[in-house]
């Protein structure tokens, strides 16, 4: 089966010129991948200070214009407005908070890290055009925020 990055990229449109927020970005692997795919602005957020520090060190070593912040997903502030938000979550509970940083009509891509289905949570938060991409390390759901 394809690796998770390939599955995630299949769920995304062309990133050229788009703004991307990555919630649960870990050590910055995915933000760097998305910036390399042409995203004009990328922000990574994670609750783990050690992982964010590692991502920031990599950005300092090889700067490509990504910013990183430490935030708990349960208390995630509005991070600005983004065309695409990618979130690694283990519950549908924070979807509304995560979606607050998404432009109307923007794309939310959720990796369900614990095998839960996110369809109901996405619909309950006003998302439409749901698509499911199966992956052994967590299903990838994509949905559009209502305009």
Structural class: alpha/beta
Gyration radius (Cα, Å) is: 14 Å
Strand content: 25-35%
Multimerization state:
single chain
Major β-sheet, in short? Answer: 7 strands, mixed
Regions with little confidence, pLDDT below 50 for 5+ residues: none
Summarize the SSE layout with pairings.
Layout: H1 4-10, E1 19-23, H2 29-36, E2 41-46, H3 49-61, E3 66-70, E4 82-89, H4 95-99, E5 102-112, H5 119-124, E6 127-133, E7 140-145
Parallel strand pairs: 1-2, 1-4, 2-3, 4-5
Antiparallel strand pairs: 5-7, 6-7
Write structural notes for this entry.
This protein has a seven-stranded mixed β-sheet with strand order 3-2-1-4-5-7-6. The protein has helices at 4-10, 29-36, 49-61, 95-99, 119-124; strands at residues 19-23, 41-46, 66-70, 82-89, 102-112, 127-133, 140-145. It is α/β, with parallel strands linked by helices and 147 residues long. Helix 3 links the parallel strand 2 and strand 3 (66-70). 27% of the residues lie in helices and 33% in strands. The protein is built from five helices and seven strands, in the order αβαβαββαβαββ.
């Amino acid at each position: 089966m394809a690796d998770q990055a390939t599955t995630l990229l299949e769920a995304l449109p062309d990133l050229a010129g788009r703004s991307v927020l990555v919630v649960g970005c870990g050590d910055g692997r995915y933000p760097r991948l998305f910036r390399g795919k042409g995203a004009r602005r990328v922000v990574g957020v994670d609750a783990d200070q050690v992982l964010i520090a590692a991502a920031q060190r990599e950005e300092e070593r090889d700067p490509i214009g990504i910013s990183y912040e430490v935030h708990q997903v349960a208390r995630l502030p509005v991070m600005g407005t983004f065309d695409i938000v990618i979130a690694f979550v283990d519950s549908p509970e924070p979807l509304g908070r995560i979606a607050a940083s998404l432009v109307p009509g923007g794309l939310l891509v959720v990796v369900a890290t614990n095998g839960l289905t996110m369809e109901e949570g996405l619909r309950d938060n006003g998302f439409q055009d749901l698509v499911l991409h199966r992956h052994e390390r967590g299903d990838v759901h994509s949905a559009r925020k209502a305009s």
